[in-house]
Specification:
By secondary structure, the chain is mainly beta. The protein is built from three helices and 55 strands. The strands form 14 sheets. Strands 46-55-54-49-52-51 form a six-stranded mixed β-sheet, with no helix packed on it. A hairpin with a 2-residue loop joins strand 10 and strand 11. The longest helix is centred in the C-terminal third of the chain and has 9 residues. It is globular and about 110 Å long.
Length: 708
């Protein structure tokens, strides 16, 4: 047999410590794999729970605090509660709740604040509410709600703010809404919504902003929208959507940014898209997509990036992909995938890091894997897995660490496990678990802390619990696009861009400065994303090179480290100098240059802001100072000019194309003059100061202005 249980897999690794075993689990099998395989992962039979060809048929896979719980039958104890930590020895029966060969049939497994709640039958009290902390002693009956052997049959277990809500039948009240804090005394009926034995039959329990919403019937209004805060008085009908005794039969209750969306029938428009804010007035039809009484029947409601996606039929295009922002105008068809009246039937809508994946047919290639970014152009078939008109029928779409896993068939190997990164080349089949044309039909795909668990069928082992062991390879090298930096540049200057060489193409990586050989000067640098930045301003006279140690880590925590040397480049710092006597100006004289004697030397003008400020002292009330500057275009820079209250402020953003000659020409071109009936004082002084946040030194120039 090609695939062995995890124990045999580990045995082939030799004798390892626990740490080495965990690392070794990332290695691939020794034998060569087929061409079309899941890159960097191996499907492994976790445990043959029902030894031999019979099936243990694991179901209801549920994660609680990193442990996977499920129901399975080992052939001895019946269908009971099991758990696994992802290892052979850690895959064990939690408790034989119904002792012997009989089955307790655990169902509706639900995580409530780290405690597992479920429905089970111990053979004495009937199907009742149980809880487990993962130990045999801690797996106990919460309460015998329907006293005796009849069973209350708890269903629709749902967590809201750390409290469990569910539907149960105590006998006298029928199926009603219950709540539990995990104790017998704290397990109580919330409200007898439909008084008597009939029961309100609560369904579609949904947590919305800490309030429970559900569908129920009080016997007068039919099945309508209700909400509850956990108290009897706070359990109320939100709205009788189809007035009278008939039911709106709402389904697909979905939370999108605190608004509840659902499918309902008001008796006039048929089944259409509705939304509710929890009030009667705020429970409204979003849009009559299929105008009239027929109804567009929205299904598979799914949130992605704050927008609701679903499939619906507008009566013209068939069942296609739609989206809604909660308004009628914003409820639109994304794309007519199967052009015309035929339907694409989008289903299994799954959000994977902001990309919507789903199963659909365009009428040509059969049911295949599609994706959408919410636009018509961005809604495309990912790959024709079953080439031609045949259907690969993708199902069980599941997000694990940003990768999509699903079950599909290519027409050659049967239904097996596939993976996709959203590209045709990155959509690949995993190992052929049930070798040949037969199918392993992966089911119950479940993500537990980034590890995929699922059930699969083989002729030799029946349907058992499998897992995907990553065999990801560590990055092999890293590089920096530029390894030198000019002196005197400010802290936060970008040195260069980091890149990684990784055998697993497409792995997400992060960068960090780490201690170790060659990491002496780590404190002088920082990393932002993939960019290395300075954390200080360097002077080549003080130190001409720095050594740092950088680690690049992939998405599975594997890494490589490398020491790099950053060289400080010597540059000539630019300076400003003012020579010659003070400049005077008398009324009626032509405008004079403010800085005719200024000179600029040096070549480091790659950054910084040059600021010029001119203050007029002794300002006359009727005098208007006039400053003029040359065109900024000569510098290839942007500049800002402000003049108010006798002061000129000029800022020039320097860049790599500016030369010292450009700056000098520009400054010498600034002129000054006044307008007005005369100066009130015999002498005014202009104090000119040049300062910069970049490489230019500051200077001061004085201009005397004489009364004519």
């Amino acid at each position: 047999m090609r695939f062995q249980p995890l124990f045999d897999f580990l045995c082939r690794l030799g004798k390892h410590s626990r740490r080495k075993q965990r690392a070794a689990l990332r290695l691939p099998y020794g034998e060569a794999l087929e061409d079309r395989v899941l890159l960097a992962a191996d499907a492994v039979l976790l445990k043959d729970i029902f030894a031999g060809t019979r099936s243990s048929t694991p179901s209801s896979l549920t994660e609680v605090n990193g442990t996977l719980y499920f129901s399975a039958n080992n052939g001895t104890n019946g269908n009971e509660l099991w758990k696994t930590d992802g290892t052979l020895v850690g895959t064990v029966l939690v408790k034989d709740i119904r002792a012997g060969a009989g089955s307790s049939n655990p169902t509706f497994l639900t995580n409530v604040n780290g405690t597992l709640y479920f429905s089970a039958n111990d053979g004495i009290g009937g199907q009742e509410l149980w809880k487990s902390d993962g130990t045999e002693a801690g797996t106990v009956l919460v309460k015998d709600i329907s006293s005796g052997s009849a069973g209350s049959f708890p269903t629709s277990l749902t967590e809201v703010n750390g409290t469990l809500y569910f539907s149960a039948n105590d006998g006298p009240s029928g199926d009603e809404l219950w709540t539990s804090d995990g104790t017998a005394v704290g397990t109580v009926q919330v409200k007898d919504i439909n008084p008597g034995m009939g029961g309100s039959d609560p369904r579609s329990l949904t947590n919305l902003n800490g309030t429970l919403y559900f569908r129920a019937s009080d016997g007068m209004t039919g099945y309508e929208l209700w909400k509850s805060d956990g108290t009897s008085v706070g359990t109320v009908l939100v709205k009788d959507i189809q007035p009278g005794p008939n039911s709106s039969y709402l389904t697909y209750l979905t939370n999108v940014n605190g608004t509840l969306y659902f499918n309902a029938n008001d008796g006039s428009t048929g089944y259409e898209l509705w939304k509710s804010d929890g009030t009667t007035a705020g429970t409204v039809l979003v849009k009559d997509i299929f105008t009239g009484t027929a109804g567009s029947v929205p299904r598979h409601l799914t949130e992605m990036n704050g927008t609701l996606y679903f499939n619906a039929n507008n009566g013209t295009s068939g069942y296609e992909l739609w989206k809604s922002d909660g308004t009628s105008a914003g409820t639109v068809q994304v794309k007519d995938i199967s052009v015309g009246a035929n339907s694409a039937f989008p289903r299994d809508l799954t959000n994977v890091n902001g990309t919507l994946f789903f199963n659909a047919t365009d009428g040509i290639s059969g049911d295949e894997l599609w994706k959408s970014d919410g636009t018509a152009a961005g809604t495309v078939r990912v790959k024709d897995i079953f080439a031609g008109a045949g259907s690969s029928s993708p199902a069980q779409l599941t997000n694990v660490n940003g990768k999509l896993y699903f079950s599909a068939t290519d027409g050659t190997t049967g239904y097996e496990l596939w993976q996709s990164n959203g590209t045709a080349s990155g959509t690949v089949r995993g190992e052929d678990i049930s070798v040949g044309v037969s199918s392993s039909r992966p089911d119950f795909l479940t993500n537990v802390g980034g590890q995929l668990f699922f059930t699969a069928q083989t002729a030799a082992g029946g349907r058992e619990l499998w897992t995907l062991i990553t065999s990801n390879q560590a990055p092999t090298d890293l590089a920096l696009s530029k390894s030198s930096v000019d002196e005197h540049l400010p802290s936060g200057t970008v040195v260069g861009t980091l890149s990684t060489t990784d055998p697993d193409n497409g792995d997400a990586v992060t960068y960090s400065l780490v201690l170790g050989l060659g990491g002496d000067d780590n404190a002088e640098f920082t990393i932002a994303g993939d960019q290395l930045l300075t954390a200080a301003s360097f002077d080549v006279a003080t130190k001409s090179s720095y050594t740092i140690r950088i680690r690049t880590t992939d998405q599975d925590g594997l890494f490589v480290e490398k020491s790099l040397t950053i060289t400080v480049t010597s540059v000539i710092q630019a300076s400003l100098n003012v020579g010659g006597p003070a400049v005077s100006w008398t009324k009626k004289q032509a405008p004079v240059a403010v800085l005719p004697q200024i000179t600029v030397a040096g070549n480091q003008l790659a950054g910084g802001v040059l600021t010029i400020s001119v203050n007029a002292v002794g300002q006359g009330k009727r005098v208007v100072d006039v400053f003029k500057t040359p065109a900024f275009a000569a510098l290839g820079t942007s500049a800002g000019l402000k003049y108010a209250n006798g002061q000129l402020t000029l800022q020039i953003q320097l860049n790599g194309s500016v030369t010292s000659g450009d700056i000098q020409t520009f400054l010498r071109g600034i002129t000054f003059s006044t307008k007005g009936k005369g100066l009130r004082v015999p002498l005014r002084t202009l104090q000119v100061s040049l300062a910069t946040s970049g490489p230019l030194a500051s200077v001061t120039q004085t201009i005397q202005v004489y009364k004519s």
